[in-house]
Amino acid sequence: MTSITMEEESKLLIVLPGDQLPESGLMEDSSAAHRLTLGPGLAPMDDDSITAVKAGILKHNAVGNRWWVESNQRRYVAAQGESIIGVVTGKSAEHYKVDIGASQPALLGVLAFEGATKRNKPNHNIGDLLYCRVSMANKDMEAELECMNPTTGKADGFGELKGGFVIKISLGLARRLLDPKNLVLRLLGQHIPFEMAVGTNGKVWVNSASAQHTILICNAIRNSEYLNSAECGSMVKSLVEKM
Amino acid sequence: MSRLDRTRTSAHQLRPFFSSQNLLNRADGSAQFDFVVGPAEVKLRDEKLDKATLEVVVRPLVGLPGIKDKAREQAIRETLEPLVLSGLHPRTGIQIVVQTMKDDGSILATAFNATILALLDAGIPLKSILGAVTCIVDSETNQILLDPTSQELANAKSTHTFVFDNKSSITSNTESKDQEDAVEVATLYSDSTGLFSEEEYFKCAQICYKAVQAVHGFIRTAVQKKLEKEQQQIHS
After folding, report:
1. Contact (CB<8Å) B234/A179
2. Considering the entire predicted model, what is its pTM?
3. Which region is the signal sequence (chain B) (predicted)?
4. pLDDT tens-digit series, residues A122-166
5. A226–B172 CB contact, under 8 Å
């Protein structure tokens, strides 16, 4: 076992831009092929080395010899297949312009909804909240969205989000909220019934019976970013008691 | 020997580091003294077809930005442009704002260090990080003093600011590279004012290079602390 695997098991391996993957790490799991798959945060450099380009935790999956860096940031960069929350900012004959928090607004085809035809299509206004899927994203063009599952053609939860409230959080926190074992959501759910949609673009939509509850949930989510389990529990408890 | 500010006992000591990250909630990334917005929309006339446009704004402690601030803006922008992987975000803009909160010497080096921390916080892809240190050659003692205060700067025969990057291997980041010959070290940026000899210049470069390793170490620790806090709930 090389030192990289040992470190991963016991503690987090933090990398900064400029840190290189050692040669020995590449040969580790692949006996025959010297092939590795690079995920976000790693890039091959001119001098044939693999260098980290973001600050984060170096992760490795033996399946397919995958390496990537788990980092956090607030600004979203569109990636295909992600589910995101967007706000309609413009309308044309063929597309909706949707603000997803990236450098440019994304385009959502007017017919990209379940069962939409030219005669029967949904009508969304400027300011509407939509839960969509990124169907195409590359760095040179605006991203394209769709409000349905591409393989089945069904809505599958995508579409308009009515009522509720949206908050902006960091991308890392949004990913952690998607974990089914997430602590703060479980604790909140014990006290308040609510529904929620998490966009991997750092936007979270929360809806509950009263505005007071909605604001409490949003504050609890925002506060939970840098807390550990014990602090999280007491934070939720103090918020709920104030209600 | 004691330095003028009485908190340091050696000529080669740097002042203690402080930093905070992710302070501002409207910005995409921030570190104390600095904030970064980006990649964001950029005006059509500034748009570059295949790269991100980097914009740096330096604001002084008091008053309106003057030529010194413009010079610092240019220094920071030109040093960072080759470091930022702007090809990953074409037709976007990255804006960096440096606001001086306290001025006690070594402003340019502090601005560089804060900028790199803010860029890391914003998740902008970079080829490497950088570290900056200022040193002076004292006019009376001819000694090289690191990280001078404003008072020490007033007594300086020459002032030098150096910026170096980090190129290390992940498993060996605790070992320092054996760079005894200062001439071979790749400098990202070097600014010198005053009267000095070639020998003094290279000696300063060597001393600053060693000091910059401490800056890199601090950046690594700061990032590590922040990441550990974020990951607490998953790993606890």
Report:
1. yes
2. 0.83
3. none
4. 899 999 999 999 999 998 889 999 999 989 888 888 999 999 999
5. no
Which residues, numbered 191 to 220 in chain A, qualify as contacts with chain B under a Cβ-Cβ cut-off of 8 Å? Answer: none
Q: How many Å separate Cα A144 from the centre of its chain?
A: 16
Alpha helices, H only, A57-210: 171-177, 183-191
- ipTM of this predicted complex? 0.83
The single-letter DSSP state of residue B140 is: T
User: Residue B116: which of B105, B103, B126 has the closest Cα?
Assistant: B126
Amino acid symbol at A207:
N
Minimum distance, in Å, between the CA of residue B37 and any CA atom of chain A: 8
What is the nearest CA distance from B130 to chain A, expressed in angstroms?
9
Tell me the residues of chain B between 170 and 209 that have a Cβ less than 8 Å away from chain A.
170-173
Q: Which residue, chain included where needed, has tokens 């990334």?
A: B29
Chain B contact present for A141, CB below 8 A: no
| DSSP-derived secondary structure for B79-137 | HHTTTB-GGGSTT-EEEEEEE-S--SS-HHHHHHHHHHHHHHHHT--BS--EEEEEEEE
B interface test, pick of A4, A14, A26 with most B CB neighbours within 10 Å: A14
Residues 62-121 of A with CB under 8 A from B: 71-75, 77, 103-104
Q: B7: buried, middle or exposed (CB in 10 Å: 19+, 13-18, 0-12)?
A: exposed
Q: Is-contact B132 A50, C-beta < 8 A?
A: no
Question: Which of A56, A88, A94 shows the shortest CA–CA distance to A160?
Answer: A88
Question: What pLDDT digit, counting tens, does each position of A58-94 carry?
Answer: 988 888 888 899 988 888 999 999 999 999 999 998 9
Per-residue CA distances from B49 to A70, A172, B82, B86 (Å): 29, 30, 17, 11
Provide the token pair at B60: 């002084």
Contact criterion met (CB < 8 Å) for B230 and A226: yes
- Nearest residue on chain B to A18, judged by CA atoms? B128
**For A14-28, B127-141, B193-207, which range has the lowest pLDDT when averaged over its residues?**
A14-28
Q: Are strands A19-20 and B168-169 parallel, antiparallel or unpaired?
A: parallel
Q: Of all residues in chain A, what percent are helix, strand and coil, respectively (each to 5)? A: 25, 30, 45
- Chain B residues in contact with A183 by the CB 8 A cut-off are 233
